[in-house]
């Protein structure tokens, strides 16, 4: 029997409001934000749904909307890569990538494939000219700032974020996989993360020198100390959507319900941070310019900033409980992202009352898909999202009225 230790945390919301070190910023948008990046303590960018590109030049006190051509071509923006105050790259679906060389005043579309059912979700640049874009089963490399793109095959479809140490050595993440290249992205090999039969959505990379952290909905955080050659389980109780590491020891992971955790020992331990108790938005991206000053972005346009490195949850009363986690299992939906059909598998080890519920990023229930007494066994249901809007959703397995596990899925129209 697998045993998991759960720590129950009791927090007074008034205490959180009075002492929270993550301060909400007015982004000027209510669209889901998927990536936030800063080049210094003043200048930063964030991107999200509906072609939203926002920029700040005063550390986030004010954010202003940047007009761009993505809204007419491929409006759900996934990644922003600012090189300096002038040069910025942004990516989206349909292999869309655009670039500005004057701080957002004008944009040039680098690549666009309207018939392609894939996304440039991940992008990384070593400098203003040398960079890589991720698409389904392919990667594009440029040595001249996007004027020309070389295309190479990658052995995976659902791929998300990419990072290169130097011009030769890089890694990218996918559903349940991390691949590595030692020849500039021309060839890739599976680094064999120990995920068993699951396919957690490794949406973000945390990187510091040779250390790499990834997380999904298992829930587990995985770490490599040799840039992907070998992997260990850093934490077996937390999942993550957003990940950001300041150095080899200090990093943050974020997930649903505005839950943020911090480590100061390289991921051996993660502790809950004080965050806004009024927000249930998922944390999509985390960025720091030093160990004190950082930002994270969320659904529905929320952005938070700290200048103190955040603050731990205090006044904690803990109670330990053991339970048999082998009794029930919820698997990652597949395909993911999807349009409009996806499948969800789950397994039961005994007869019980079962519910599968889907929620939006605000915690509003969309629809109960399963609500019945079921016998032990393996089950699969099909979800048709035709009647809902594109975006990020959460689905949960409830057994006997108790929420057992929650995972994320992305619907892309």
Can you put this structure into words, describing what you see?
The chain has 413 residues and is an all-beta fold. It folds into 2 domains: 3-306, YVTN repeat-like/Quinoprotein amine dehydrogenase (Methylamine Dehydrogenase, Chain H, 7 Propeller); 327-411, Immunoglobulin-like (Sandwich), CATH 2.60.40.2550. The chain is built from 1 helix and 37 strands. It has a 4-stranded antiparallel β-sheet with strand order 2-29-28-27, with no helix packed on it. Strand 36 (391-399) and strand 37 (402-411) form a beta hairpin. The longest helix has 7 residues, at 13-19. Mean pLDDT is 86; it is low at 1-19 and 315-325.
Side-by-side strand order of the widest sheet: 2-29-28-27
Q: Biggest β-sheet, characterized?
A: 4 strands, antiparallel
State the oligomer. single chain
Shape: globular
Distance between the termini: 42 Å
Quote the CATH topology of the largest domain: Methylamine Dehydrogenase, Chain H
Relative strand content: over 45%
Average pLDDT score: 86
